[in-house]
Prior knowledge:
Structural class: alpha+beta
Strand content: 15-25%
Mean pLDDT: 85
CATH architecture of the largest domain: Sandwich
Strand order of the largest sheet: 1-3-8-5-6
Low-confidence stretches: none
Largest sheet: 5 strands, mixed
Radius of gyration: 24 Å
Amino acid sequence: MKEIIHIKSITEACKAFGLPSSKHPLVNVVWAKNMPSFNQYIGIKYNTDFFSISLKDGMEGSMGYGRNSYDFTDGTMVFTKPNQVLSIEEKNIQDDAKGWMLAFHPDLIRRSDLGKTISQYNFFDYEVHEALHLSEDEKATLTDLVRKIETEINQNIDKHSQKLIVSTIELILDYCNRYYDRQFYVRTNLHQDHVSEFENFLKSYFNSEKPSEIGLPSVKYCGEQLNMSPNYLSDLLKKETGKSAKDHIYAFVVNKAKNKLLGTTASISEIAYDLGFDYPQHFSKLFKKQTGMSPAKYRVQN
């Protein structure tokens, strides 16, 4: 197994990959046209201590993200956060490339509101194949905001600089939230297929011996089986159905439990274990929370 290179700072990243350096130690903007070929870095695995937001425009190639490799096309946005394992598989940068990368260290936002809320931007946990694809107008909007950050970095830093940079980063992330909502909406037919696929997966799982062998399926496990990140799966379901992946799993389990309570003579403990619960009391607690009554009371009254 190849060693994973750990890059602690933005300054260190610039030196390691031959990128233009930044006047600010905690944030940097690099334009695609100024990036090296990266040929000498192909296949090298690395992780960093900072966030990055990238627009792939005028750049052809693929990148490794976790265990998989994905091609990216023009207009693709990719988001990474600290400690994710990445690798450059191949890259060709066109002479007229308009893409960019915005990198910022957690220390930049630590004392700001963004430092408290950045975990709510779920797309930092999406896989590359779940990337955001932008229209020309959307690319222009985000690129203009990145230029504002670059201007702040390159002029003399004063007491307002950090606040303005951080607020602009937050604005970029809020726009990306909006654009992801648009992408979910326009791909609703595809996503309905994913909803059906998820429901069929739950049926297959609970009709097998897996609940008693493995337990209740986690959102992470479901995502892996459907080739999606857990956050993307949950957000997709939330947009399409109003319920998260966990809500769907619990609703399915409770409905399955109702059928067992009314259609069999199995004890409540047996039903709990068959559905994948380690402890019957956890099953009873969830059932009561979902239905307003205990499993025993439901069996008697129906």
